[in-house]
Predict the 3D structure of the following.
Amino acid sequence: MPSVIESSKTKLAYPRHEPVIKNATFKVQTGEFVFITGASGSGKSTLLKSMYGAMPPMEGELVVGGMEIGRLSASKLYKLRRHIGIIFQDYKLIKEWNVEKNVMLPLIIAGFPKDVCRAQAQKLLAHVKLSHKSDKFPLELSGGEQQRVAVARALAHNPFLILADEPTGNLDDYSSQVVWELLEKANEELETTILVVTHHIPEMFSADYRHLTIENGVLYEIR
Amino acid sequence: MRSVKTHLALILPLFAILFGIEYLMVFDRIVSSYETKLNAEYSLIVVADKTVKSNDIGHADTLIDRIETVDAENILRRIRQETSAKNMEKIKSIMPLFYSVKLRRYPDRSSLQRLKEELMAIKGVKSVHMFEKTHDPLYAMLTFMKGNFSVFALLLALVGLLLIVKQMYVWQLEHRERMQIMALFGAPVWLRSGVLFRLAIVDAFIALFLIVTGMFYLVSRSDILAFLQEIDVDPARLFSFDDVVLLAAVGFGTAILSALLVVMRFKEES
């Protein structure tokens, strides 16, 4: 199976700071569901950022979707991102856009016609049980609903990889369960590779998964 | 309400810049039209004790348009009846030659002074009469006002630009979050900045519309038309299609450049 992510001795640091990640060596294969855990400040989110190019490695080699992140030009990086779905703890929905348009975002960027974008957005909103709120704006929704919109947006363009940063960090148990179910389903049915950074692996999680953890800036495989 | 404020914050300074430019152009046209009228009625008289070649006078200054010899008969006719033929011959022999010098444009006082010195330097020229007292006081006032309006328009443009730059920072903050999110999903620059350019173009269009409508209204007012007639200015010359093109270029150019500034300053958060 081809690797979706290949990281070899990746070192990550913020400018004028000690490295947060000293050595991240791992591979993620197509269709895998991977959790990366670690204490607060361990560098989980930083590692995730590096995978969508917001934090290029200072050393080592990080290849995502066959492209070496550290050597990508801005335009190539944007092209790569068009094939990745990202879910954030703080949802990152566009406040001025309604729910439907937020879900349409990756499709608009990909250049699909409006009616195609709208049909796909409605299909996904039905999937996350928010069809009745497609005209609402993000601030009119609860946190759980906003995150479901964010999940729908991440799935809208059938990405080969979904990166999720503490996707249920701000959610109640019910909303968390809905989000995990959606991700599991995308992984099982669409074979989308999913990489989640989180404090704890949810107890209700039933699918097969791999577990990596970060300790003292080094990434270890646990399962 | 917030949206109206956002728009007004760009429309008003843009309008101020365009108004300054248009006002300056209109004022310049009024002054130059008045200059043409004054110049048509104005000429210098050069008095010489021997024949001066018209080329000598013509080459003295670029301001000189043409030279006409004043026929001495016109002057002599008046005194002929009271003077004997013998004396008339004497007067004729000592009478100087007069030249009327027409100018290309109505000169200011310093140009007149320079012209006088240049003409006096020509061999044979005894005196130059400039009729300084008829040098129009209204014209002097208009040129003074034109100078003042230029300074005023420049200040208006500077303040307008500063307000536009300030508004751009506000836009940058307002649109930063949206642009960041779009960048995370790989949106190209033109797509994530599209709304900024749309705002800039719409606002420039509104500012242009206001100034053009305002100018059409002004040049169609009866009191303005009466004033223009009084100072012999053709109202059709006051505001033309060329003005609209120039104002559109400045308006859209300024707005698009400002939006470009915001886009160029955008940095993705790491």
Chain B touches chain A at residues 177-178, 180-188, 191, 268-270 (CB under 8 Å).
